[in-house]
Amino acid sequence: MEYNFRAIEERWQQYWRDEQVYRVTEDPSRPPYYVLDMFPYPSGAGLHVGHPLGYIASDIFARYKRLRGFNVLHPMGYDAFGLPAEQYAIQTGQHPEVTTEENIRRYREQLERIGFSFDWSREIRTSDPEYYKWTQWVFIRLFHSYYNNETAKAAPISELIAHLEKQGTAGLNVAESQELTFSAEEWRSWGAKKQAEVLMNYRLAYLGETMVNWCAALGTVLANDEVSDGVSVRGGHPVEQKKMLQWCLRVSAYAGRLIESLETLEWSDSLKESQRNWIGKSEGAEVRFPLLDESGKEREGALTVFTTRADTIFGVTFMVLAPESDYVAEVTTPEQAQAVEEYLAATRRRTERDRMADKRVSGVFSGSYAKNPLTGEVIPVWISDYVLAGYGTGAVMAVPAHDNRDFAFARHFALPIVQVVVPEGEEASDPADWSESKDSKAGVLINSGFLTGLSVQEAIAKMKEHVRESGLGRVRTNYRLRDAIFSRQRYWGEPFPIYYDQDGMPQTISDDQLPLCLPEVDKFLPTADGQPPLGRAENWHTAEGFPYELSTMPGFAGSSAYYLRYMDPHNSEALVAPAKNAYWRQVDLYVGGAEHATGHLIYSRFWNKFLFDLGLIVEDEPFRKLVNQGMIQGRSNFVYRIKDTNTFVSLGLKDQYDTTPIHVDVNIVYNDQLDLDAFKAWRPEYATADFILEDGKYICGWAVEKMSKSMFNVVNPDMIVERYGADTLRLYEMFLGPLEQSKPWDTNGIDGVHRFLRKFWGLFYSQEGTLRVSDTPATKEELKSLHKLIKKVSADVEQFSFNTSVAAFMICVNELQGLKTSSREVLQPLVVLLAPFAPHVAEELWHALGQESSVVVAQWPEYNEAFLVEDSVKYPVSFNGKTRFTIEFPTAATPQEIQEAVLQAEEAQKWLEGKTPKKVIVVPGRIINIVL
């Protein structure tokens, strides 16, 4: 019987739908296991072959766990809010909901064709009001909470208010935007509006002025990954840095916990390190540098800097401010105002990422001076884009002798450089002769007053003590992690559950008014006066007439707790019922791209910890184990057009002509051979194309590039499924290489995987279509081959080494084919082993073997070491080091027994020629060497 993959795959996909094979409920009698993929944004282009890589890997693991007896939750949904659908709506007038629905339908069709074991009854869409009701619900609780540093957890804002009413800020140790000091009497004397403004300083969801990437053409704030080289990724519109009043989440409050609990997670070391670096914990001191007036005397005000190296203050020769720092307005003199403003305007056109990557030196003098608090030296205050406002205080003390960027800045603007640390193994030298700064991690202090002669570690400790005792500042721990900007001036996003009262202060709507649904608007553009698109909505206000918030939430809002909603997706009374959360607990395996290390994964962990603090969930971390899949790159193909003609020459002949390489659609190229008719039909200008062939074929060139529509190297998985079948696609994507590595898509190798499946099919069916399986007991060799495979695949799946599993299947099938295996004892467990990788053909053969239930609920074969124990060994027999023949002996045979038997063997007589051997060397289990 022929392997008719189209009929097989259609039949069993329908069976799985009809029988709801993948539907799961809580079952206390079985251990739970939660497998989750990072859910996709449903773009109009649909899936390409790179997208399913992680889904296939997680699906193999989910199926494997089911076969191991686990109750597996494996859901799928859509991150459905996003800028692309909104931009399409602006261009066409089609509502984003319509576009998103069409795209989701397309994605669902593609995903189902690949045979994933998703429980579709749990599907979620972040744009569904019944879903984003719970995003709004969590936001309300963030708004009504603050972070208590003493208890290291979130607490109700009512508790903070009670403290302020009794003690003011005395004894207060909380996360805050800025340090405030006021008494209980002052607090009680303020009106409701003033109190509400002060509470914004502490709320976990708050309105605050922050620096954003503002795109005027799109009318919205953009995330860093939506900006490149000063323009928006979508549309290429100019983007500038701008201070705006935005909703923010106080993610920074959780920075310490986010670092500490990384140690409890089964994540790669590189991913953990990415998060540690992003959170950026630093132990150091805040130090005040007094500002000076025109006469050189101290005036009101000071620049406060955070430094991890207070021991190097004696080497500070100038100060540098971030262009966005509030200090800039305070220190800029009238004489320097124009130069400063010109510099700030240029900086606004660059994102922080651009500034961090650019090593060019630029800056402007503010006109003001400060005093080095230890040396008393007068030092100039500069402004430069290499300093970022979000880290520390936005002001740095420059120690050019021991920092590369400070050194480059000092050299560029001819500022003094003073060495204060002599590195180990060196002597003090003149900085004028240096080409770069000196390392200061270890060494001895010089030119440093009371620190001179101390080692770096001794000086750091002594300086911290001095800072505390002298009142120069305070010792503290600082984090680079910033609060998350949580509002976007767009239409297509979650509305905030916020209205503004008579004082213009934000208030939350009540829970019984959720969800607050997106209103209809006439256009998806900002209003004429620059308000966000929701400003166009009619009656966008409460029943009392108070206006609702006009911004919407960002893309990461809906993805921050979606893993919890999958546990209980149809619950209208709670985000997740306590009993269901207690059963599933957390995601056991999370699979997705490493590009989310410092975005989504930080926000989800923050969101989860907050809900944990409120006692709403049982686990402090959302994702126990995380696996990052690599990227499948495109394998582009090229045709070569002879210049000034419409004639195309094949790859092997192109050097004989003056040609131009042109990208060609890889979907009309097979094994690098161009389909000439398809090429002529591809574009009108090629309809009259002529070809110079080699051996009757047109062979294309190729290169590995990013998979992109502009390079015509996007491979649609539908085409692979149609031509080879979903099981072939699944196996091939795993066979391409290690899961976590990037690798090029190469259709040339897919035929071999398809042949393997046909060969596998051939173990069960004869060419005439007769089922070959018998109840004949398996031979020793067959059982050895099977159990070798069970051992290998079981270990590989646990390690996500799917590529080597596929190779092992191929070896085993070749062995069994050579043994002419037909034994059910071998073939039935073989079907179960392949089921996670190629579920359609496995289901077909499982039922052909007479099974009534699905192979999905079969039992994973157990590996038996006894079948791999060899009872005999084949020895190569060498004469004077040259192998002449092989001979088999029982494993238990002694070297003496082997020596005696081999010398009597008929094959040995030919090479002995009647001679007596000088020596016979027997290495047990390996070789026999006869020395003549």
Gist of the model:
By secondary structure, the chain is of the alpha+beta class. The two termini are about 60 Å apart.
Account of the 3D structure:
The chain is of the alpha+beta class and 932 residues long. Helices cover 32% and strands 19% of the residues. The chain contains 28 helices and 35 strands. Strands 10, 11, 12, 13, 14, 15 and 18 form a 7-stranded mixed β-sheet that branches. Strands 24, 25, 26, 29, 30 and 31 form a 6-stranded mixed β-sheet that branches. Helix 1 packs across helix 26 and helix 3 packs across helix 4. The model has no long low-confidence stretch (mean pLDDT 94).
Low confidence ranges: none
- Into which percentage range does the β-strand content fall? 15-25%
Compute the number of strand runs.
Answer: 35
Could you tell me the mean pLDDT? 94
Rg, alpha carbons: 35 Å
Dominant shape: globular
Tell me the quaternary state: single chain
Q: What distance lies between the first and last C-alpha atoms, to the nearest angstrom?
A: 59 Å
Helix content: 25-40%
- Class inferred from helices and paired strands: alpha+beta
The major sheet is characterized as: 7 strands, mixed
Number of helices: 28
